Amino acid sequence: MTTTPGGARSPLCAALEGIERRYERDDGTVVALDGIDLAIARGEWVALTGPSGSGKSTLLHVLGLLDTPTAGLYRLDGEDVSTLDDDARARRRNLKIGFVFQAFHLVPHLTVRENAALPLTYLGRDEHDRHRRAAAALERVGLGHRLDHRPGELSGGEQQRAAIARAVIHEPDLLLADEPTGNLDEASTDGVLDLFRSIHRDGTTIALVTHDLRVAAMADRTHEILHGRLA
Ligand SMILES: Nc1ncnc2c1ncn2[C@@H]1O[C@H](COP(=O)(O)OP(=O)(O)O)[C@@H](O)[C@H]1O
Ligand SMILES: [Mg+2]
Question: Which ligand is closest in space to the CA of residue 227?
Answer without folding.
Answer: 1
